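Good morning N.,

You mentioned wanting to compare the apo and holo forms, so I went ahead and generated the holo version with flavin-adenine dinucleotide. This is what I fed in:
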Amino acid sequence: MMGINKNASQVIAEIVSNKKVGAYHHMVFAVGELAKFAKPGNFVAIAVGGESSSMVLRRAFAIYRAFDRGTNGGLLEIVVAPHGAGSTWLTNQSVGFKVDLIAPLGTAFGIPTEPIRALLVGGGYGSAPLFGLSEVLKNRGCRVDMVLGASTAMKIYAPLDGKRSVSSLTITTEDGTTGITGKVTDVLPGIIETNQIDIIYSCGPMGMLEAINQIAAELGVVHQCAVEEAMACGIGVCMTCVLPIRGEDGEIRMVRSCIDGPVVDGSSVIWGSKRQIPEGTWGAN
Ligand SMILES: Cc1cc2nc3c(=O)[nH]c(=O)nc-3n(C[C@H](O)[C@H](O)[C@H](O)COP(=O)(O)OP(=O)(O)OC[C@H]3O[C@@H](n4cnc5c(N)ncnc54)[C@H](O)[C@@H]3O)c2cc1C
Ligand code: FES
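and this is what came out, ligand included:
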């Protein structure tokens, strides 16, 4: 078990950009020094609702990109789907407004030391952390293919500059409004075989991650995924975000996905537990 990300700090950060892109808002915050510690896979926890709000829980967002601009300070970017009260409040804030945020939090995607062939798979706004990852992998000499899926075209987040960092981009939508009609999992086996993929990195809804993991297991491909369990504190205190994981010693333990994740080895997750504690879990009997 790990502790909170040792590089995390709490800052009051000004919104420097807030643009609607399809079904999402691309938001940029001036975060100062902490930008240089953010790695692909890490997330940020943002206080929502203002000082007198009853929304006491921070909301977690995957870090899309972070830049250290030297003396000009650092920038941190996220992609937000206005959904419930907290995310809608956040996307309604204007440039110049300041929010209270903690970052970088959680684990990051593991980066290979050798130039290997990687497949990045994102569902909806789950594509956000994958573009920063693809830049890092490209710089290591890896071939990077990407598959993005969503229910409809408006929910595909694929900015032009992000597309430049991948060798191929395949898009699937369930309603066929763009790309191939179907789900990301329909195209994965073909791409894995044709491009001789060594590792899959994924981010998106839990059902999608589980389906990807099954394909990875069948085809013998390593799978790292960024899980999205509901989080309350985001810093390892409340145990809301626990997920059953089988450790190297064979024991199943409930681990906190906010500090031992969100990036985990897909083959170690006990999928389909539906927020129940699986039988045989360490400490449960
Ligand atoms: C690691 C991670 C990364 C994420 N990345 C993104 C992203 O990049 N973009 C994006 O749009 N969204 C992202 N989300 C989802 C985001 O954090 C919010 O959950 C989502 O925006 C809905 O929040 P809301 O305020 O709109 O909804 P509301 O309904 O107002 O609030 C939902 C809140 O309730 C909490 N909650 C839900 N179930 C429980 C429970 N059983 N016990 C306690 N608390 C609970 C949630 O954690 C959340 O804080 C991410 C979530 C996680 C965990
Ligand atoms: S969200 Fe509180 S322990 Fe993970």
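The first strand starts at residue 9 and ends at 21.

Happy to go through it together on a call whenever suits you.

Best,
F.
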